[in-house]
């Protein structure tokens, strides 16, 4: 009985390194575009008396969804536009987060208003 048990254990340990395991043999997918091409937000920082900022990208006529959040994560303002100007006259001085979505790609930028 001990011989059979020893033989079975020997076979298991012998075959263990030969096993391929459970890893898939498929290569990883091609990386998708993660950034909006040529995205620029200016002026940043903004002087307190300025009422607009400009958001441009390489695709100038694309539809852009812009959401403005405060540093606590509360959404302050949201808009959808093809124009490059964004009215910020209702914002007080402080630090804000812009979430800009163009198509299926989103980017975040920090906006400082002095």
Automatic annotation (TrEMBL):
<feature type="domain" description="Secretion system C-terminal sorting">
    <location>
        <begin position="41"/>
        <end position="113"/>
    </location>
</feature>
<keyword id="KW-0732">Signal</keyword>
<dbReference type="InterPro" id="IPR026444">
    <property type="entry name" value="Secre_tail"/>
</dbReference>
<protein>
    <submittedName>
        <fullName>T9SS type A sorting domain-containing protein</fullName>
    </submittedName>
</protein>
<feature type="signal peptide">
    <location>
        <begin position="1"/>
        <end position="23"/>
    </location>
</feature>
<dbReference type="Pfam" id="PF18962">
    <property type="entry name" value="Por_Secre_tail"/>
</dbReference>
């Amino acid at each position: 009985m001990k011989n059979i048990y020893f033989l079975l254990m020997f076979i298991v340990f012998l075959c263990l390194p030969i096993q391929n395991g459970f890893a898939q043999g498929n290569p990883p997918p091609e990386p998708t575009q993660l950034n909006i091409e040529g995205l620029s937000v200016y002026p940043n920082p903004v002087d307190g008396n300025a009422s607009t900022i400009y958001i441009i990208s390489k695709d100038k006529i694309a539809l852009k969804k812009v959401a403005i959040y405060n540093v606590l994560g509360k959404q302050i303002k949201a808009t959808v536009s093809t124009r490059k100007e964004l009215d910020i006259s209702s914002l007080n001085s402080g630090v804000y987060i812009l979430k800009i979505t163009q198509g299926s790609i989103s980017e975040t930028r920090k906006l400082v208003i002095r």
